[in-house]
Structure prediction request, 111 residues.
Amino acid sequence: MNLKLVLSLFIFFFISCDVSVENKNLKNLTKPCDFIDVKMEIFKQINVIYNKYLDVDNYKEVEMVDFSKLMKLWQKNDEIDFQIGLNHWEESIKNCTNYQKVDSLKKKMNI
Prediction:
């Protein structure tokens, strides 16, 4: 195989397969359940960060990398909520497989 082709394929798979949830492009999502699935990923990652700092009383003790990631996750969550509202999917998302899990995590994190 051509070296350029192998290198190009490697770069393509490296970049396309490792897109973090806070950097996901929502324009590629078309169905309500797609948005709920991404929301599920977001809530799982937010929950990990919350659990990491569960006993921290002072926000200054939170690492800047974690704080930045948390803000990006919240922003992506807001974008998803906007898209759900814009498309009037509030009722249809309740039929999605991950809806109950998302709702449960939302209540657990008191959002």
